[in-house]
Amino acid sequence: EAEDMERNFETVMIEQCAPVLASLKPAGLFRYETSDCADLARRVRSWNEQLGEKGLCVRVLKGCVRTHRYLVYVYRAAKLQTVLADAAVRGFLAREGYRLPEDAADCNALLDQLSLRLCCAAEAADFPHEIGGFLGYPLEDVVGFIRHRGKCFTCCGCWKSYGDPAAAQQHFDQLAKCTAVYLRLFHSGTPILKLAVAA
Question: What is the overall mean pLDDT for the chain?
Fold first, then answer.
């Protein structure tokens, strides 16, 4: 059973976060269901130890012991710092009510606030859509999604794009191709540690 859970956790991580492991994206998020939160904590700790040397971190952003559903965030700290230190992104987060840390490289202070918002979002209407910024989506897409409430997009792939549809489609295709290749390698026995590039 533990092996099944492991497989499941790893499979979902590859399905949702292959572009992060490949360093094409700064961060990704996946949902994981388990009634064993001690096991999940062990897994997260173990993945942080293994992937840390590749520049990757794993963190549970939201968890519910009642529904057994967890949101697991996989990110490259250095890439995320670059995204969150961007003046336009900082301005956007400040407008969304985030307290900006004085140290622009302090991702954790912002992730703590995002985590709190996710945990407080009882209704879909409360969902913090600014999470797109933390997933490395282009800022114009995140702002466009919030402004248009998810409608009127120009292209839809891993997220809804509000910019040049051709460029967005090309980007979505690249991410999909990466995921397909990673899944194929993973299912044929390549471990995640080998698939994660050091960047």
Answer: 92
Q: What is the DSSP string of the chain?
A: -HHHHHHHHHHHHHHHHHHHHTTSSSEEEEEEE-S-HHHHHHHHHHHHHHHGGGTEEEEEEEEETTTTEEEEEEEEHHHHHHHHHSHHHHHHHHHTTPPPPSSTT-HHHHHHHHHHHHHH--SGGG--TTHHHHTT--HHHHHHHHHTTT-S-SEESSSEE-S-HHHHHHHHHHHHHHHHHHHHHHHTT--HHHHSPP-
d(CA 50, CA 44): 10
For the entire predicted model, the pTM comes to 0.93
54 token code pair: 């590749």
pLDDT in tens, 132-157: 999 999 999 999 999 998 999 999 99
